[in-house]
Design a protein that fits this description.
Layout: H1 2-32, H2 40-67, H3 74-99, H4 101-109, H5 122-189, H6 194-213, E1 220-221, H7 222-237, E2 244-249, E3 258-259, H8 265-274, E4 282-291, E5 294-302, H9 311-330, E6 335-340, E7 347-355
Helix pairs in contact: 1-2, 2-3, 2-5, 3-5, 5-6, 5-9, 6-7, 7-8, 8-9
């Protein structure tokens, strides 16, 4: 609780320290460094100028920037600040005339020299105008940075929500069709090879456990993801006929890393959805390599496209679109994806590289 209160007070402390430093250097230390005792009217003016700049800073911060500048009224914002700067200078010019500041300062610095009125020193007034503009500029910058941070936080939260919703959709998409077909295949196996059926049930249970628990996390171990892929492929083998040539290369030993769950599955699943024909020879190649925390997935299959009106065809398209979106969100600058489906061999090729460092 104390840490939470302290964190909330940090911005206030920073503001107090910042203004203390600014006020001390510009309005206190700098005049005192001259070693001359100045009149009270001068110190009153310094205090009024400091208070005016503080008020300007927060008026600009809380009102002008959010209510005018961020509402795309830039011209009005600039005009109001220009008027404010000229008013700021004008008020203290009147104050100097009212208190005879020029004569008082002359007596403080040259008490033995008779005072002779001179023309106004506009360079000093211009310096005051620059101080005002500096206060406005810093105020605008702070407000803009805080708005950017707030917008970025909202954007990240929305992206994370979208990632979670897309992953949930992906999980829901794979469950019905795949598990239903696999259970039918296992049921058929019980009359042919009981031991193989038991092994298939074990693999299916491991996959269900992965889908239920590992995908709830933001990341999972790469080894678990590859085990899931292996179980998936082994269960898909139950449906393959002798017309299907399956070439598989998945490493057994490698340096483990973390990866977002179910990123690779849609590409592997796509091979079996579109790469198998009941009448023609089919070829599926799946190669996965891990080198220095980089994952390389290369798949090749003939392109026997399912109708988009079928559950498999529609789900496949949505699944790949979701996966591409997740790659963009999770590994924006750390992945490359190349899909080629237009070639004389009628092959569908996927080359995916993900940097897990």
């Amino acid at each position: 609780m104390k840490e939470l209160v302290l964190k909330k007070q940090i911005p206030l402390i920073i503001h107090i320290l910042g203004w203390s430093l600014f006020g001390s250097v510009i309005f206190l230390i700098s005049p005192l460094s001259a070693g001359v005792e100045r009149p009270n009217e001068f110190w009153i003016k310094q205090g009024l100028m400091f208070a005016s700049l503080v008020a300007t800073f927060y008026f600009n911060y809380f009102y002008l920037v959010p209510k005018v500048l961020f509402k795309n009224k830039t011209s009005i914002f600039l005009l109001l600040n220009l008027i404010g700067g000229l008013t700021f200078v004008g008020i203290f010019m009147l104050y100097d005339d009212w208190t005879n500041m020029s004569e008082l300062m002359h007596k403080a610095f040259r008490p033995d020299v008779p005072y002779k009125p001179r023309g106004r020193n506009y360079s000093y007034d211009f310096f005051n105008f620059l101080i005002f503009i500096m206060a406005v500029g810093i105020s605008t910058s702070v407000a803009a940075v805080q708005k950017w941070q707030s917008d970025e936080k909202v954007r990240v939260e929305r992206e994370q929500q979208q990632i979670n919703s897309e992953l949930s959709y992906l999980k829901a998409q794979i469950n019905p069709h795949f598990f239903f077909n696999t259970l039918n295949n296992i049921y058929s196996l019980t009359n042919i090879d009981v031991e193989k059926a038991k092994t298939a049930i074990l693999k299916l249970s491991r996959m269900m456990r992965y889908v239920l628990y590992e995908t709830e996390k933001e990341n999972t171990l790469l080894s678990k993801e590859l085990d899931f892929i292996k179980d998936f492929i082994e269960l898909m083998r139950l449906r393959l006929s002798e017309k299907v040539e399956l070439v598989l290369e998945i490493p057994e030993k490698f340096d483990d890393a973390v990866i977002a769950p179910m990123l690779l599955l849609p590409f592997v699943e796509n091979c079996f959805k579109h790469g198998i024909s009941s009448q023609k020879h089919s070829k599926i190649q799946i190669h996965i390599q891990i080198k220095e925390k980089h994952v390389y997935l290369n798949t090749v299959n003939f392109n026997f496209k399912s109708s988009e009106n079928t559950p498999e065809g529609a789900a496949s398209g949505i699944g790949l679109a979701n996966t591409k979106r997740r790659l963009e969100l999770l590994y924006k600058e750390k992945h490359s994806l190349d899909i080629k489906d237009q070639n004389p061999e009628n092959e569908y090729r996927v080359n995916l590289k993900i940097d897990l460092k």
